[in-house]
Amino acid sequence: MMEDEDARTNLIVNYLPQSMSQDELRSLFSSVGEVESAKLIRDKVAGHSLGYGFVNFVNPSDAERAISTLNGLRLQSKTIKVSFARPSSDAIKDANLYISGLPRTLSQQDVEDMFSHYGRIINSRVLVDQASGLSRGVAFIRFDKRAEADDAVKHLNGHTPPGSAEPITVKFAANPNQARNSQMMSQMYHGQSRRFGGPVHHQAQRFRFSPMSTDHMSGGGGASGSSSSGWCIFIYNLGQEADEAMLWQMFGPFGAVLNVKVIRDFNTNKCKGFGFVTMANYEEAAMAIHSLNGYRLGDKVLQVSFKTSKGHK
Q: Where is the RRM domain (predicted)?
């Protein structure tokens, strides 16, 4: 019973500003109700904040209220995300859905409304085209439980939303750690590998493009140094305060990250607006690009692509 109680009071807080301390985290959440514990997660070696933490309330009602009042709060240049921390169990694994063919007019709230009949939604994202700001008709929704996601697939895959001429496709988002998904991944990315500069002609190009001389790349260990193993991803339009920990945190959920590098101004040490992430696995890198390209971070919209000699559009 204890675990169940904990599940209703324990929150995970993501996208915290780098400078925020554990005490500040505690005092922010104490404004909602009595906090039993607050823990900021730090790098074990270097000691810097990894940008997320856990807050456990005494009362479940305060935890609910903290989610409704603090989720989406702007802190410095970050928008924090507050949700229930998830006990690890098979019941909640693979509850992430990929939805395509949505009418472009549907907002994130509309999409959540369509899916919320089938269970509790942990988070959702509608992918947006950077140039027009319009929905690309693609979304990700993570349910609380696998069974709820199953239910949504059964009822909504092939369903035509009101006011739309086309049926939508609803399927489980590929979990790159599972071999059984590799076929689905290759189908999903096969059509896009050209646009991504995918594996076919990527190998030869990958050494030509180096936007920086390597003299201040900390010994060249960044963008070009590690690209002989793994897949190098180029991230453009980062804010000035972007740092390596933020890139680890953004790309880590998609799979094994070998290396991250934020390109800084030599004099001010502020981020110049771009960085690189090297991931071990092509499918995972493609999934990260697919999910994060067009992602809004603070007031910037990120452009994320495989690093190629063509630059980016």
A: 9-87, 95-175, 231-309
